[in-house]
Amino acid sequence: MEHPVKIYATADNIISSLGFTTLENMENIRQYHSGIYRIDDTSLFHEPFMGARIDAARLNQAAREHQLQDYTRMEQLFILSLGDVIRQSGINPAASDCGFIFSTTKGNIDHIGTEAALLSLMARRITAYFGSSHEPIVISNACISGVSALVTASRLIRQGRYKHILVTGGDLLTRFVITGFQSFKSVSPERCRPYDSKRDGLSLGEACGSVLITSDSGLVKESQPIVIEGGAVTNDANHISGPSRTGDGLYYAIRQAMDETDLQPEDISFINTHGTATVYNDEMESKAVEWAGLEHTPLNSLKSYWGHTLGASGIIEAIACFEELRSGEVFGILGFEELGVPKPVNISAEHRHVSMQRCVKTASGFGGCNGAIVFALNTHAKPVKSVLPVSCHITGECSIVNNTITVNSEIRLQTDPKEEFATFIRTAYKQLATDDRKFYKMDDLCKLGYITATHLLATSERYKTCSPLEIGLILSNRSSSLDTDEKHQQIIDEMGDKEASPAVFVYTLPNVVLGELCIRYKIQGENTFFISPDYPADFLTEYARDVMARHTLQLCIIGWCELKGEQYKSHFYILEKTN
Amino acid sequence: MEQLIQELKASLIEALNLEDITPEEIENNAPLFGEAGLGLDSIDALEIILILERNYGIRIANPAEGKEIFYSVQTLADYITANRKQ
Predict the structure, then answer these.
(1) What is the pLDDT of residue A550?
(2) Nearest to A440 among B17, B46, B47 (CB)
(3) Nearest-CA distance B29 → chain A (Å)
(4) Whose CA, among A340, A360, A467, B33, lies 20 to 30 Å from A219?
């Protein structure tokens, strides 16, 4: 059911290398201060590197004041950041109409090997602190997690599932993450320089950011309220770690987000991109921005202030967008000197005054995912196009459990349940009689998803007639990518930082399963990975139905793809829009 | 040289998870990357950089430098012979 409501973003907090409140962070950016410095700490990396860290002494003090000593560092950050938003807004976080969405790639990864590393368990500890009895929603969509979480929050409120959602995103600067990005040779030896001709990689950072998304204008205290107009998530279907060479996936995300309120390029006052400062990311973004007709629109990236803060980046950069919209300034790209991307996008090193209506915030990440969201000043906000409820039906399902593959109640393969997963999945692959040289490169979670999806899609006639943007993929699991996370951690613990394997690290994100499937089956529509203690099938179906009503989606693969050691289970089904 | 080539093929098969491919099936002069060859990609290139550093003490900082060196098993072996430190 569609609720024609305005979705406000109000009350926010940023804890980062640049301070513990939004105001403090913004003051630092206004003065061109960066939180990125040379870090010489062998507990993080065997040699000095450039990164952005949260002030440890200040965090310890804040944690003591709030009696948070029993919580991990990541949990302390989430609690402090959410606490600030709750105080500012006066929202009751325990109310039945208030939900929580967490955006994180690695959560408590510094506690790997313990239960704390399970993302949904971490989220529950935090919501329990605030007295909420709802199951928190956790999104782990690589570097677009933050934008994804904001898009999901606005959709769930429009659906009427919640009135308010506290959205929070966080990730830590850890040895796990640093060694991984170093193995990808994507860390710059200097402070990162987005869009510059001399850029040579990203800088990593840590942060936590929170904001209240609500349909209740009574909770909005700002004199210039911010409204979420539209948002979309897509996939490049090109490569699991390399950005698209054409920018098509990001362009589609921007276009779909703008289409929700029929926006034209001239309606956009500025665009805040991901802008990681790797050669290929910024190049790809410039192509997508030009394709969207936004090459003359002021553009910025905030990565040279905060570094790349992973699951926090989409949230804290969105909060900066709100501040920029209100103050009428587009922050300059610190360190930018000369344009170094193939398309002539509109960039400045200095802060610029711009007449404001609305902005587009984008992100792109591993697994080929892209996200875009539109924020407008309330005085300029356009009504979201009303959507009619759509009817959908399930047309097929496939499950793999106990070494048995079942497609629409028919057993396709059954081997001894005591056989190891590696042997079973190899037999399952051989049975398909296809030649996919990359199958053996995948981690076990991706292999499981691949075999399940291959059997399922073979049954679908509709799939053959759908274009890539008409097909979506929404998956969930309990253990995220912990199976491979433990392998990466073991390599760096036993062999050293320099031995980190890029072929292992790339699979330390659950949504890479989505990426692998999108590449093989040319899927470019909605792409989201939820982490949940149990299979939330009804929630996922409702979510897909809403995306079908809002965007071009005709068919969606939905499911559960869980694997940790020898324990595994998958169940995928196809939801089709009824014509 | 022949011994180095055999050694390289074995390390590539292991490090790049080229299951189902035997050393004999990798031709010395055939391209490793792209659809015409073994279908290796940018992640494999990073793994080859690790092999060179770990096994032969050769450091390649920028993956772009590796394009010609990584063309085939033969070009890799030639480069290692000229530059090896261990």
Answers:
(1) 87
(2) B17
(3) 20
(4) A360
Taking contacts as CB-CB distances below 8 angstroms, the residues of chain B near A240 are: 43
CA distance A13 to A381: 23
Where do the DSSP E strands lie in A219-265? 226-235
Task: Please give, rounded to a whole number of angstroms, the shortest distance from the CA of A421 to a CA of chain B.
Answer: 16
pLDDT value of position A437: 83
The chain B residues in contact with chain A (CB within 8 A) are: 15-20, 38-39, 41-44, 46-47, 49-50, 53-54, 61-63
Quickly count: other Cβ atoms within 10 Å of residue A408's Cβ: 13
Within 8 A by CB and 6+ apart from A114, the residues are none
Q: pLDDT tens digit string along A277-328? A: 999 999 999 999 999 999 999 999 999 999 999 999 999 999 999 999 999 9
pTM flag (> 0.95): yes
Query: What ranges do the domains of chain A cover?
Result: 8-225+301-353, 392-577
Question: In the prediction, which pLDDT does A4 show?
Answer: 63
Domains annotated on chain B, with CATH: 2-83 (1.10.1200.10)
CATH of A392-577, one of 3.10.560.10, 3.40.47.10, 3.30.160.70, 3.40.980.10: 3.40.47.10
Cβ burial A396-406 (10 Å sphere, 16+ → b, else e): bbbbbeebebb
Assigned architecture for domain A8-225+301-353: 3-Layer(aba) Sandwich (3.40)
pLDDT above 60: residue A2: no
Q: Mean pLDDT across the stretch A35-60?
A: 98
Round to whole Å and give the CA distance between A4 and A112.
Answer: 44
